[in-house]
Amino acid sequence: MSGQDLIDAGMSQGSWFRAALEAANKVLSEGGSTADALAAARAHQPAPTLPLRSGNDVAIHMNIRAENAHEQDNIEKVSATMRELVRTPVVRAAAIMPDACPSGPVGTIPVGGVVASEAIHPGMHSADICCSMAISIFPDVSPQALLEGVHAVTHFGPGGRPRGAQIKPSEATLTAFQQNPFLREMVSVSIDHFATQGDGNHFAYVGQMKSTGETALVTHHGSRAPGARLYERGMKIADRFRQLLSPETLRENAWIPAESEEGENYWSALQTVRQWTKENHFAIHDMAAKNLATKVGDRFWNEHNFVFRKSDGLFYHGKGATPAFDNWADDATDLTIIPLNMAEPILIVRGSNANNGLGFSPHGAGRNFSRTAHIRRLREEYGADSRGLSPNNIAAILAKETNGLDTRFYCGSPDVSELPSAYKSAANVRAQIDHYGLAEVVDEVVPYGSIMAGDCQSNAPWRRGKRKG
What we know:
This protein has 13 helices and 15 strands. The protein is α+β, with helices and mostly antiparallel strands. It has 2 domains: 3-42, no CATH class; 132-468, tRNA-splicing ligase RtcB. Strands 4, 5, 6, 7, 11, 12, 14 and 15 form an 8-stranded mixed sheet that branches. Helix 8 runs antiparallel to helix 9. 44% of the residues are buried.
């Protein structure tokens, strides 16, 4: 039996491997089974050295207040999950943003959560690594023309672009994928999914700058399949360390020690996925510009699902939280982007590096209800029967909530779980940004229209075929 056999069995490499291998191979030499040999090896695994903290050991900065009973329930759930999370031994501080909402079992970082830690926690940046915002100004283009131009070139929905229509990332980014042990098997999928936007709450939004009247394109999406696959690998590696270092820690909060070989490679992989995502945004913007035979003016971007390392040596995990501290990245500007919903302006803000926010601001308006719960509420409001919302119901909801905006759904069917009523009050979130001193609003993108994936499942080709049959 070799050290690789122990690693494949979920054990994390260490000085104890020598004694473990001797014991395992002794069992095998005496005719024992592989399972018995592995059990003998595990007996040499070091005992847990990092117990869970008390739930009150780590400060949680609450930058959120309830405006109604539903929001009070939401805050209680968010507080409970964060209180369990901060028991993780390597966590040093936490903050909750005004747009916070639960995102999993108790102990899972909420959307709108910020956690400072000594290590890297894949579960705290989630599968949508580097979900982010990007804006480009199109000075000489009308909003209608830009929305048409973007619609002609972007790609929403599951999967990537079809063969023959794929677009490659830069050679530098592809080379970085090839050189990283966590990413080298993802080169093909990094091409398949390039210049795509996915589904859910991701969008392409066209509006006009409040300050100048210039037309702007804002896109929202993450790292697609490359990020999701890196997350899966990161969670498996983190769980191996969890079993070795702190088995009591929740699997969702498992960590990769930054100083380990795995930690260094994972950190490098995160930076490569970040570069891929940035290129992904601006590839769509540039394709729209080419389609319209025009040039892009100013542009910038920022992520809000990522891990940042500050000068204090800690890793700051923003799960749906926008960096608001100086020099948060090499390509950082002093401005970041906070969307609210498709019917509201997108905010251009200058971060305030507030201590109570751990240097972060909100990433949007957040939810008080899950998608399923929101749809159930709409069905009750519009008197839908057991078959669900009718086309007439949906048309009435769109007319009420989008207020004459040019709202489009790439897959053909609207996704009512992403309409404005699914989100918290934009006015309340703006007021709380100001109240807690998290950022300064310096400009707005006033909405003209937007494109989202829509309900890709209800009109999927396999469903259409089944209905015809």
